[in-house]
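Progress report, Aim 2. The chain analyzed during this reporting quarter is listed below.
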Amino acid sequence: MEELNKIYNDNGEEEVVFEKEDTSSGSEVITKPFNPNDIDIETPPFLIYSLIDKIKHGEINMNTDFQRAGNLWSDEMQSRLIESVLLGLPLPAFFFDTSVKPWNIIDGLQRCCAIYNFCIKKDLRLQGLEFLGEKDEKPYLNGLTFDELNDGLQRSINMRPITINLIKKADRKVRFILFKRLNTGGLELTPQEIRNAVYQGKAIDTVNLFAKFDEFLTATEQKIPKNRMQDRDFVSRFIAFYLNDYTQYLPGLDDFINSSMEILEKMEKSDIDIIATNFKKSLKLAFNIFGNDAFRKRRDINVGRSPINKAYFEVITTSFAKLNNTEIQLLFENKELLKDNLIEIMKTDRYFNVLSRGTGTTDSVKIRFSWFQKVLNKSINGIKIKVTDDNKIEDKEL
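Predicted structure tokens for the chain:
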């Protein structure tokens, strides 16, 4: 899977903008199995021509913002797919969710984009072909568009059988599992991309709106990548822990976030507006206290800043969002004390590590929230803390 936490600055230099996270929970066994009878999948005979026809008539959702970016394959990768078709090689199976109209693509998005670009839009010129690109081969196809192929080759593409699986019935939890497990094109969906596909409607519209808030863009310096929906994943993490107290957390993290989407979908607009107001409040406070160091782990004030940490973002924004105006004023007055106290707990490997390793375990969630809450309360009350050798937070004067 490609690295999702890197961008390139104006000088073309690679920059890590948020820390790579291990979200494992140590509990990957399915404890609540679903009933196979609740899934209805058909595999009818299908030709590429039929796929082209459905795409042409808007019967397959190619508006990929709902899921992830389309056209992530290079022209050469797309050309190799067309070459495979011409050579009669079997393509991986396509999976479509037909419980909605138009169909959603569960697996095969990049292949559909390649077929669309070559056979419908017709602006893809074949290049980098492995077997049909040598000049002494017949036919020699490098540089040709679909319209420039002879009738026999065009027909060969159109009439090529493909395997499609039509998921006609499955609840959202099952569809999430299917999206997660059925990616075969080498560009694995992120959990947030899957959520965007499965939880279409009020929940995802809310997440997408929050990710566009000026306060979010300012506090994160607009450095969280949007192309794989990482910005929306940050927002989803906040919403999940805002709606569900961390003390009630059960692994895994994806299930926990998905459950919050179910809650969000049923909420009134007025209640969602309150969440939006508190989210903005938390982001403003984080930026006013930490500046461009917001959501970054720091053990030493004299060293360069670290990448943005997603688990730290989740803890800070959720905790700040629940402060009242008096607490906010006191915290801002004691912001230097807060930063010193956070450095104190960050010096312990126990707290430092739960923000990056196994962040989906119950223990990690409870430690990162409970320790931060203790530091927050102490700082609001003007108390400097120390962490003892047995990992207890105490007043420094004691």
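Residues 118 and 124 are 5 Å apart (CA to CA). The chain has two domains: 40-186, 202-395. These observations will guide the mutagenesis work planned for the next reporting period.
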